[in-house]
């Protein structure tokens, strides 16, 4: 029990520390010349882009939350789903863009159709936190920030997953390398400037964040998205973690993302 209490206290202190750091990083005055030069700050319009492939079960709750958020637009970039994903998307009023399958291809197609000046890329099994738009606007109001993402929470009550969340937090915070399941967001002009996602089925988020870091800092907002634990529970927490690290190591050693995807996802999971 003492170890559990220490762990909980540590998590709370980390959250407070992140909140303070976030406030400092985002404290640029709205009337400053740097902000006045950014048209997105005067007319913020957030487009949420969701790549899908057979996501009829997960998509509804995600779109329901977005429908009540007042977000500028929601674009479902579908990669040839064979189930009722498109019907679900239409029923919630989302704009549907059809694309070849592959998350990088799909998200680029969604971004090309977007009319917002800020883009948020959301996995179809991930719920955004309350007030997510204010976090996005505040983060991107800092001219030194090129992009942002959220902390990660995995929807299952396992201690092993709490450790995974902690590891993700430190990687994102210190290495500025959030992954796609943390709901990456950036300005539309910055996304275009760095060249968007590569047309890859996997590792597309790592490649994009590498280029975004060259354009500015990647900030982690002090709020968490909640993603489904389905993949972690199906394959096993540590087996999934080991597999993820093996994929990243292979990518850094020069293995083709297409080859990694064939090994990692015989049937692609978004």
Could you explain how this protein is built, in words?
It is a single chain. The chain has helices at 2-25, 33-36, 39-42, 56-67, 85-91, 103-113, 132-140, 159-175, 188-194, 204-215, 230-235, 237-252, 257-264, and strands at residues 46-52, 73-78, 95-98, 118-121, 126-127, 145-155, 185-187, 217-228. Helix content is 51%, strand content 18%. The protein has 270 residues and is of the alpha/beta class. Strands 3-2-1-4-7-6-8-5 form an 8-stranded mixed sheet, sandwiched between helices. The protein is built from 13 helices and 8 strands. Strand 1, helix 4 and strand 2 (73-78) form a beta-alpha-beta unit. Helix 4 (56-67) runs parallel beside helix 5. The protein has one domain: Spore Coat Polysaccharide Biosynthesis Protein SpsA, Chain A (Alpha-Beta Complex).
Please state how the strands of the largest beta sheet are arranged side by side.
3-2-1-4-7-6-8-5
Distance between the termini: 37 Å
Number of helical regions? 13
The CATH C-level name is Alpha Beta
CATH superfamily: Spore Coat Polysaccharide Biosynthesis Protein SpsA, Chain A
Count the E strands.
8
- Average pLDDT number: 83
The geometry reads as: globular
Radius of gyration: 18 Å
The CATH topology turns out to be Spore Coat Polysaccharide Biosynthesis Protein SpsA, Chain A
Unreliable runs, pLDDT <50, ≥5 residues?
1-36
Structural domain count: 1
User: What percentage of the residues does DSSP assign to strands (E)?
Assistant: 15-25%
Structural class: alpha/beta
Main β-sheet, in a few words? 8 strands, mixed
CATH architecture label name: Alpha-Beta Complex
- Overall helicity: 40-55%
- Elements, N to C (H/E): HHHEHEHEHEEHEHEHHEHHH
